[in-house]
């Protein structure tokens, strides 16, 4: 009988967790980079955020490709899901903070 063992499910769960954490960190780095660029603070800190935001997920995916080659898809799913979730949550938070202008009668 072939199927997925309990150990395989555990490895897939760990892979998704690694992906989720990577996506959250990547969103934070991207957010910091974008806010510093749009805020006109293009300095050394901005360059560090840009480089780190690009290299961090790449490094995690390369490490997972060597250590967990069969689970790389699950890491990618975790990254994508957490990036989308963080973006939606940030959008909702910013939308609620802005007050709607009152209509003049």
Using the alpha-carbon principal axes, give the shape.
flat
**Helical content, roughly?**
over 70%
First-to-last CA distance: 74 Å
**If you compute it from the alpha carbons, what radius of gyration comes out, rounded to the nearest whole angstrom?**
19 Å
Low-confidence stretches: none
How many separate helices?
A: 3
What does this structure look like?
This protein has 105 residues and is mainly α. It contains three helices and no strands.
In brief:
Helix content is 79%, strand content 0%. With 105 residues, the chain is mainly α.
List keywords for this structure.
single chain, 105 residues, mainly alpha, flat
Architecture blueprint of SSEs:
Elements: H1 6-38, H2 44-67, H3 72-97
């Amino acid at each position: 009988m072939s199927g997925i063992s309990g150990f395989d499910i555990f490895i897939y769960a760990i892979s998704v967790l690694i992906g989720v954490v990577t996506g959250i960190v990547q969103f934070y780095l991207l957010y910091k980079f974008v806010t510093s660029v749009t805020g006109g603070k293009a300095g050394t800190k901005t360059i560090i955020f840009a480089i780190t935001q690009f290299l961090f997920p790449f490094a995690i995916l390369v490490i997972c490709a060597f250590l967990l080659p069969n689970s790389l898809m699950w890491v990618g799913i975790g990254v994508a899901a957490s990036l989308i979730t963080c973006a939606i949550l940030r959008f909702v938070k910013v939308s609620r903070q802005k007050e709607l202008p009152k209509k003049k009668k």
